[in-house]
Amino acid sequence: MSYAETLSPQTAFAVNAIALNSGEQGHFSIVIPSDDDPTSQIIKIATSTWRSRVGCEFKSQSDKYRIITITPEGARFREFVSQWRKERNSLSSSAWDNVRSPAYQRIIGMGERALPFILREMQREVATGDPDDWFVALWSITGENPVPLENRGQLKEMARAWIDWGLRLGYINGEGLGAAFSAIGYLRRP
Amino acid sequence: MAKAWEPHFPQLGTYEDHSPTTYAGGPHPRYNCWAFAAGESLKRWEPDPGNQYYWPSAAPRDYSVPAFMAAYETIGYEPSQNSTLDRSCEKIAIYATADGRVTHAARQLSDGRWISKLGDEEDIIHQLPESLSSVVYGQPVQYMKRTASRGQALHGWFGWGLREILTF
What we know:
The complex is a heterodimer.
Chain A: H1 9-21, E1 28-33, H2 40-53, E2 55-61, E3 65-71, H3 73-87, H4 102-109, H5 115-128, H6 135-142, H7 155-169, H8 178-188
Antiparallel strand pairs in A: 1-3, 2-3
Helix pairs in contact in A: 1-2, 3-4, 4-6, 5-7, 5-8
Chain B: E1 15-17, H1 33-37, H2 65-73, E2 78-80, E3 89-96, E4 102-108, E5 114-117, E6 123-126, E7 139-147, H3 150-158, H4 160-167
Antiparallel strand pairs in B: 1-6, 2-7, 3-4, 3-7, 4-5, 5-6
Helix pairs in contact in B: 3-4
């Protein structure tokens, strides 16, 4: 998705919500007024929120306006996944080696907000074959281990245990559409 | 055509691709090299601290050579002095880097060659344990053996043809 608009405070919050909920869409850009505009303070608050939750890059600026490129969390997650799959050691049999990958660490660094994306990716992979090595990330983020003893090492069964865990806690829903809603839920949780 | 991973193993020499399927670009296969060496093809062996993967409960959950020896001891292996073919035994080799971290395991076939699963890449049959000595895997640092199963022993003595007949 790519669009530009001049922000009013209301728009700023609307775009903020869009940024959080645009899931796995790609980058988009917005144009904001210069610092002396009355709305700039509110916009700064909004962009501060974006900075903590999405990639936010100032592409250019002039006396009149700035252009900010926003990368929604879903798109950031996709970028990290793509990078991880390129940089991981394909000769290693150790799932724990993933921890050494900077991109995998960045996924872990997304914390709880990465869970809906990981779990949805897992749902997709289980539907088409065997799941990838998400288990270290899930454990690192949550400290949980929902995998029954008898299923450890069996990737599909492990993934199903984590998906059930995600459904139970509301990180995903049965239709695989829970990521956006969970992102909102995350904001609401203390 | 040479595989992209081949330059990582300067001592590889001739090898045979033994992959059941090609995994390139796809999700990981169900087993890994440590499970493969143990004869397990349905689940992954991994002593991860998060306790997510299968690891024999009697073995320490870390990546040290003693921990892997303890894991393989749970399925009947005991330390062996060498990698020499002994048709009454099945042998495995445990690889580790200089810091003592286990990286790989290979299993000896009844014809004396060795079979390895190379991470996400192919399963290959290589001539010697040292064929995979490298920066990536380090060296074979420990051999283990167990009494060969009847099928394995028959295969060792009489070759594939007779074994297949007996199996059926």
